[in-house]
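Researcher: I'd like a candidate sequence for this fold, 411 residues long. If you have to choose between options at a position, lean toward the conservative one.
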């Protein structure tokens, strides 16, 4: 893959694919990985197992590289008729990223990012994280024998994610600050100490995450009208959009979906920027939301996300914590799909957009649900309450299971 290079999205300066840089040396802009359009078809792909590496020709990792994998991607696309009815739309699918090895979409990026780290000869990797990035990086670092450092905002990382980073042997550093401060620290440290940085400012991560777009086309047999994605640091929506753009460039699809970016109301700088039609982002200084995964006030990938939304004639909105929690419950009770709060934001945003008329009722929509329910058990107990305790006797149990006490599902 001699055609692979890094390119600045602002000034188009190009750099070699083996340079360890995370922003443009000329102007400081974000980098993306680019390559010539490959000659491959969905028929070729279909001969391989369903997952990230099925699309090998579209992933710009040099041939012969030792691939670090835990069988990521290949996640289910669930048709959700009851949820569609609740949201008021004809057709709604959930792309369930909770089914990845560490329970979130981050694994798609880490299989490529950690493979790149290895092929560059790195010995140590690092990230700042609201939780899932650290869980995933810790696992892939363990898988490949790399030392891993993760910097987390103290007290604001869901228990399941923290448990993963600890058990997979990462050095976990908790800073008394928010994610944005942690990210700045890890960017400084990685530059000064030569540790390979695997936040989504690293464009190789996005090369793995873009495969979600390929899988959607594989699973549906066509391109959906709208793809709704929760936004935090804004890597994922950018990556998925890049995937569709590349499919079009390779002549494998003819139209692209509208990208719908959804943020939590207390951490919605990109949505604010788009609402006001501004050219630059004003960071949110003290972001706050129950969806700790997307509690991010200064997302580094905002220019890529804004481009994805604007150039797809897309949509954007923010949803409140109450809307997130209600939607999380609906996804769980109506469909049996357990997602963490940030993931519910995509579905909550779609329901709002259908109610307000900005998405037509007869649309076909894919909501990306980015992480598993069990990531954040403490949130579940706080919104569902603890189970009622009874003495161990028959009378007390029969009291509890009388028909009028049966749980009521929404109509
Ligand atoms: C479940 O782990 O930023 O917009 O440090 O865990 O690509 O940042 C997590 C982000 C959505 C937002 N849903 O994705 C981290 C981190 C879940 C997430 C997002 C995250 P981006």
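Model: Candidate sequence:
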């Amino acid at each position: 893959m001699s055609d692979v290079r890094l390119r600045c999205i602002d000034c188009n300066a190009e750099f070699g694919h083996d340079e360890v840089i995370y922003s443009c040396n000329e102007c400081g802009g974000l980098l993306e990985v680019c390559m010539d359009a490959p000659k491959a078809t969905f028929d070729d792909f279909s001969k391989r197992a369903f997952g990230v590496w099925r699309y090998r020709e579209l992933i710009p990792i040099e041939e012969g590289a030792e691939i670090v994998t835990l069988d990521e991607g290949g996640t289910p696309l669930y048709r959700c008729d009851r949820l569609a009815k609740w949201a008021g739309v004809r057709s709604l699918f959930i792309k369930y990223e909770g089914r990845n090895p560490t329970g979130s979409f981050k694994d798609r990026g880490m299989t490529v990012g950690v493979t790149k780290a290895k092929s560059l000869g790195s010995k140590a990797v690092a990230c700042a994280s609201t939780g899932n990035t650290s869980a995933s990086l810790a696992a892939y670092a363990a898988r490949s024998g790399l030392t891993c450092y993760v910097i987390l905002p103290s007290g604001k990382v869901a228990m399941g994610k923290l448990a993963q980073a600890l058990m997979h042997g990462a050095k976990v550093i908790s800073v008394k600050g928010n994610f944005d401060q942690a990210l700045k620290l890890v960017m400084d440290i990685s530059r000064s100490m030569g540790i390979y940085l695997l936040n989504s400012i690293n464009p190789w991560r996005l090369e793995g995450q873009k495969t979600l777009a390929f899988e959607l086309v594989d699973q549906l047999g066509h391109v959906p009208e709208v793809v709704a994605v929760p936004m935090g640091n804004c890597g994922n929506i950018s990556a998925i959009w890049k995937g569709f753009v590349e499919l079009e460039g390779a002549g494998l699809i003819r139209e692209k979906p509208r990208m719908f970016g959804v943020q939590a109301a207390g951490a919605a700088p990109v949505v604010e920027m788009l609402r006001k039609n501004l050219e630059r982002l004003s960071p949110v200084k003290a972001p706050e939301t129950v969806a700790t995964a997307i509690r991010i006030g200064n997302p580094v990938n905002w220019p890529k996300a804004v481009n994805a939304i604007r150039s797809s004639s897309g949509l954007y909105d923010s949803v409140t914590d109450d809307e997130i929690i209600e939607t999380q419950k609906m996804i769980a009770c109506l469909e049996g799909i357990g997602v963490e709060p940030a993931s519910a934001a995509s579905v909550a945003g779609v329901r709002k957009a259908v109610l307000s008329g900005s998405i037509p009722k007869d649309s076909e929509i894919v909501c990306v649900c980015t992480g598993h329910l069990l990531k954040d058990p403490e949130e579940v107990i706080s919104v569902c309450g603890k189970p009622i305790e009874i003495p161990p006797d028959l009378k007390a149990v029969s009291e509890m299971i009388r028909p009028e006490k049966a749980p009521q599902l929404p109509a």
